[in-house]
């Protein structure tokens, strides 16, 4: 077991229906196993908190390693509440120890991304707020030595308080948003300016 595993271990045992997870001394059930990594779920621990489960496929192993490293660095950077990014709460494992999911901070957003939130009728004050939050989040990422890589409006969620959250640290490249500079801070800055322009500011 690696140090990263021990720091973010979520013990899971199989059950007749779904799975039973042991998380912070509370047991709760999940019924979204078998879906692809594009189909997230939501869990309700007995302590009343809510967690987001991101399932991973076998071919997502490199993406999983990339995300774990980012969440490790986020934890070590001890960024404040203004850094609206999910935190890693645990790993979802089967009985053999195979990791097939991440347990993350749940963002109350009704799946609204920046690309869906920006509409013709969106107020100027909201657009300015989101643009400022995008800049702040990317600045804090870079200050912590992290690169976002696959930067695009679909990877910013807008929560119930109309605040922007950055998500998806699995790497990759989306044509049209990040040039050949993808995977660099310069590439992030290029994509950031395009997203600020997308807000209409």
Automatic annotation (TrEMBL):
Residues 6-201 form the Protein kinase domain. GO terms for molecular function: ATP binding; protein kinase activity. PROSITE patterns: PROTEIN_KINASE_DOM. This is Protein kinase domain-containing protein. It comes from Fusarium oxysporum f. sp. raphani.
């Amino acid at each position: 077991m690696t140090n990263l595993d021990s720091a973010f271990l979520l013990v899971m045992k199989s059950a007749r229906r779904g799975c039973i997870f042991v998380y912070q001394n509370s047991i709760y059930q999940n019924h979204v196993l078998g879906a692809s990594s594009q189909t997230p779920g939501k869990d309700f621990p007995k302590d009343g908190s809510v967690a987001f489960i991101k399932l991973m496929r076998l071919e997502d192993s490199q993406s999983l390693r990339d995300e774990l490293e980012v969440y490790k660095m986020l934890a070590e950077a001890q960024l404040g509440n203004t850094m609206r990014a999910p935190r890693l709460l645990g790993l979802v494992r089967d009985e053999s120890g195979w990791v097939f999911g991440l347990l993350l901070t749940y963002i109350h957003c009704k799946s609204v991304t920046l690309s869906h939130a920006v509409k013709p009728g969106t107020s100027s004050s909201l657009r300015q707020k989101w643009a400022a939050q995008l800049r702040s989040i990317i600045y804090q990422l870079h200050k912590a030595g992290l690169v976002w890589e696959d930067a695009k409006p679909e990877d910013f969620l807008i929560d119930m308080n109309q605040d922007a959250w950055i998500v998806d640290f699995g790497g990759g490249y989306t044509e049209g948003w990040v040039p050949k500079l993808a995977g660099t801070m310069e590439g992030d800055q290029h994509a950031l300016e395009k997203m600020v322009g997308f807000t209409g500011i």
